[in-house]
Structure formats: structure tokens, C-alpha cells
Amino acid sequence: MASDEIIQRKALGRAAEIGFLYDATRDVFCGFSIFKTELQPNIIRKIDTPHTYLKYEYEDSYKEKFSILDVEAQLKISILSGLSPLEGSGKYLRDVKHESKSVKGSLIYKLLSVEENLNINHDNIIMYISENALRVQGATHVVTGIKWGGTVIASFEYEKTNEKDKRNMSQVKGVLKANLEKLSSYIPAFEGTGEIHNSEKQQTDIIDRFSIKIFGDVIPNDKILPQSFEEAKKIMTGLP
């Protein structure tokens, strides 16, 4: 490990713990910890940082997606060049609009819970360091702080499949906006009435034409492709 520069990186669904080794030249975790055993509790400082964030996004550019996920400049380069793997919410970066005539929108929900920081000045920390970890090839940094939380993104896309589809795209966009707002009301942190007004019921055939994808750091694999708005609603209801 040759760098003493402090860097910050978004996990983007990648699992990590305090002490994990990181290769900043490829923006990947090395699969090893610098510590040989579990640390005693008082070596890690924990601060509760409860915070939730909700946003609706109707743009589909890399610029907007990187901004939504707060991706750092160096990590952007690693992602675009294919060096850094994407997991969980990070896979949203690959969710591209299929064609110019389609209508696309996303609901972005972020949750922060706890911040952990390693007390590197603790008297006993040296006894936990593994000499083998110091020889791990490619390791440039050690994880000394983590902001725990997660991001869940529900992505909806209406694709005009043929010229016989006479639906007005402005109407489709309106239905999308209304249903994204309705979907957010089922997230416990933003709980609302969840009622469907008559005008929305009349447009059920439109929302049923949307393909839906869920990207998240706490979503089971069998839930990432809900087949209907109702299935997506059930996933949102189960979020913390």
C-alpha cells in the first residue's frame, strides 16, 4: 500500500467493512481485511445519522444518473471504462432507454442510518493488524469509515412498439408521473393514503404497458423484475 491520500467512494451495492483493503487504481475491493480478528467495539465510533431522501427523475443520461447516485469523478471513469463492477443500486447506471420514442421515469429512495469511523489512534489497534494483509497485491487504501444505508430505484419505461399505438405521449408521461408519486406513498418513511382516484383507474391500461425494474442494495434477486405496479408497490411497502 503506497498511498496516504484519503479518498471517498460510493459502494454502489458492493459489500464492505471497516478494514477492507481497496485498490484505487481499479476501484475494486481486494477481498481481504487488514485486521486478522474482529475489533473490540470501542475501536469503531458509531454515530446515528437517520435520513431519508426521495426524488423523481425523468432524464436518462449518464450525467443525471451519476449525479443521483453521488458518484465521485474517479469512480465515474472506472465505471465507464468497465474496471469497476456494478452491484445493487449501481446497476441503475446500465438501465438505458431503449429508444427515443419511449417514455421513462424513475423513483429514487435513499436511506442513511449509521456512520462508522475507525479510531486509528486507539492504543490496541496495532495488535489486530495482519502482517499478511500488508502484502496483498494491488491494495492502495484501507476502509476507515462507512456511511451505512441504501438506495432503491424503481424504473418504469413505456415503449411504443408500433405505429398503431395512438396513445398520446404527453398523456403517458402524465400517467407515469402520477403513478411514481403514488408509489412513493407506500414507502413507510413517506407513507401516504395510497388511494387511486377514478381518473387513474381509467388509465390502468397505460400503466400496465410499462416495464418495471427495481435496483436496490437490499432487494432480493427474485424481486428485481416486478410484473406489475401492484408487485412494485409490495416491494416499496417492505422498505425500511
From TrEMBL:
<keyword id="KW-0378">Hydrolase</keyword>
<dbReference type="Pfam" id="PF24674">
    <property type="entry name" value="MACPF_SNTX"/>
</dbReference>
<dbReference type="InterPro" id="IPR056072">
    <property type="entry name" value="SNTX_MACPF/CDC-like_dom"/>
</dbReference>
<feature type="domain" description="SNTX MACPF/CDC-like">
    <location>
        <begin position="7"/>
        <end position="235"/>
    </location>
</feature>
<protein>
    <submittedName>
        <fullName>p-loop containing nucleoside triphosphate hydrolase</fullName>
    </submittedName>
</protein>
<dbReference type="GO" id="GO:0016787">
    <property type="term" value="F:hydrolase activity"/>
</dbReference>
<dbReference type="InterPro" id="IPR052090">
    <property type="entry name" value="Cytolytic_pore-forming_toxin"/>
</dbReference>
